[in-house]
Amino acid sequence: MQTVDVIVIGTGSAGVSAAEAAREAGKSVAIIDKQPFGGTCSQRGCDPKKVLVGVAEISARSSWMTGKGIDKQPKISWADLMAFKRTFTEPIPDRTVEKFKDEGLKQFHGVATFILADTIRVNDKEIKGKQIVIASGNKPMTLGIPGEELLIDSTGFLDLDELPDEIVLVGGGYIAFEFANVAMRAGAKVTIINDTPRPLGGFDPDLVDLLVKTMEDAGITILVNAAVSGISGKPGKLTVEYKQDGKTQSVKAGLAVHAAGRAPDIDELALDVAGVTVGKKGVVVNDYMQSVSNPAVYACGDVAEKGLPLTPMASYEGKIVGTNLVEGNTTKYEQQPVPTTVYAIPPMASVGLTEAKAKEQGKKVKVIFKDAVSWYTSKRINEPAAGSKILIDSKTDEIVGAHLLGEGSDEVINIFAVAMAHKITASDLTKTIYAYPTRSSDISYMLKE
Ligand SMILES: Cc1cc2nc3c(=O)[nH]c(=O)nc-3n(C[C@H](O)[C@H](O)[C@H](O)COP(=O)(O)OP(=O)(O)OC[C@H]3O[C@@H](n4cnc5c(N)ncnc54)[C@H](O)[C@@H]3O)c2cc1C
Ligand SMILES: NC(=O)c1ccc[n+]([C@@H]2O[C@H](COP(=O)([O-])OP(=O)(O)OC[C@H]3O[C@@H](n4cnc5c(N)ncnc54)[C@H](O)[C@@H]3O)[C@@H](O)[C@H]2O)c1
Question: What local confidence, expressed as pLDDT, does residue 267 receive?
């Protein structure tokens, strides 16, 4: 049995931030992962995904400009694209192991399970920790439908050697909208099947409608009010069943991908042994990111029931945990605007309240919706859809929410996040001089009533 000051479960953005802060302060730290070291974002999420999206964007932009300076649509070579993607992902485990070695972290490869409130087993080793950090992330949620084992998950899609001709995406959230454009641009026939009336719940409905129409026009089938109820067949020859308007219908696919939501990865941890309370979205923590039921345990990132399950939040929460491990509970989780982007084509980005949420909270806001497809920034690239919806506090003139669709939205959303975080008013944003012509230089038009 080894004893350390801190045990960290998970080597993603959350776990690493906590572990490094504790180690830098001189604590002995053990870090554990059951998968190759480096976590989801860099190996199985954000980073490889955006490499694929980058190529799909070139294809989309070429198709928009065909006959306007482009005369031949480039063809995506899936094999070459995968090989390029792997130049990013494959070095990560070894690089992470080396970095951890230099930092003096004690590394354990395997599944972590609590055997006592302060002791973890990994393979045949037992480690006792004065404090334990759970940073085990999320995993695809169990759907409870027959044949769900025939689905591949996002990790599988991001590492496909060959792209089948027909792909069904089960669910209509972030993953479906990002993967659909990649697969369609690479030559597959793509169907998204979403159970609710409008996909991408939580985003602005007017912009979602524009995005849905654009993707449908580009050839992607998007079924709504359609709950996937079963998958049958064998790999390569699948039938995906769904219930729509009270009827069971089906679609054939070479591949069906789980894009129906993620849930905390806690099943193997035996959290009951440690007396750690778990809610619907993960480990229940207080504002110090400390378990509400076991003060020796902290949780951060996707697995903690706080904040959105996004990479910048995982790092933010991991840093809070790191500080609190070292200094005692000094740093609290602060509510702040969290920008997020769906890397669809074109991308859609959001920060702050939606119109519906502002109404629910009884906020008096000005709502400025603009369809921007005829603006120069979009016309220049013959983009099929663009728009914005900005919510401004009627009293203070501060930005309450910003929702953007169109090329460049993933960058411009950060300007709105800065404005919200630092209470820069809509009038100040309008007066600012921006480099022209850029999507940011459209901000003054987005804010004009
Ligand atoms: C396809 C996809 C695309 C995404 N794109 C974006 C994006 O563009 N932008 C964005 O902000 N976010 C994106 N996300 C979300 C983002 O990846 C996560 O929010 C972030 O990686 C969470 O970090 P984490 O440290 O909490 O968990 P993770 O990085 O998931 O790390 C948790 C680690 O814990 C390990 N683990 C779990 N249980 C155990 C156990 N019992 N024992 C040992 N180890 C264990 C896991 O193997 C894993 O490596 C995406 C997610 C997916 C799936
Ligand atoms: N760009 C990004 O930041 C990014 C990208 C990918 C993933 N992520 C993270 O990963 C999480 C998971 O992504 P996701 O796309 O899997 O989930 P999601 O929660 O974004 O969307 C899941 C969708 O599937 C639908 N659904 C659920 N069960 C269904 C069924 N049986 N039939 C049809 N539809 C069904 C839901 O109603 C929902 O619309 C996201 O919430 C996000 O936190 C972020």
Answer: 97
pTM above 0.95, yes or no: yes
Ligand 1 centroid–CA 283 distance in Å is 15
Instruction: Determine whether the shortest distance from the Cβ of 164 to ligand 2 is under 6 A.
Output: no
pLDDT at residue 409, as a whole number = 98
Q: Which fold has domain 346-446?
A: Enolase-like; domain 1 (3.30.390)
User: Fold identical between 148-260 and 346-446?
Assistant: no
Domains of the chain, by residue range, sit at 2-49+83-140+263-327, 148-260, 346-446
46 lines ligand 1 (CB under 6 A): yes
* Whether 417 contacts 351, CB under 8 Å: yes
Nearest CA to ligand 1 atom 26: 301
How much distance in Å is there from the Cα of 266 to the middle of ligand 1?
13
Stretch 90-110: mean pLDDT, rounded? 98
Q: How large is the ipTM? A: 0.99
Evaluate: CB of 227 within 6 angstroms of ligand 2: yes
Quote the CATH superfamily of domain 2-49+83-140+263-327.
FAD/NAD(P)-binding domain (3.50.50.60)
Does 50 carry a binding-site annotation?
yes
> Amino acid identity, residue 276?
V
pLDDT tens track for 355-389: 999 999 999 999 999 999 999 999 999 999 999 99
Give the residue-averaged pLDDT of 53-71.
Answer: 98
- Is 177 labeled as ligand-binding? yes
CATH topology of domain 148-260: FAD/NAD(P)-binding domain (3.50.50)
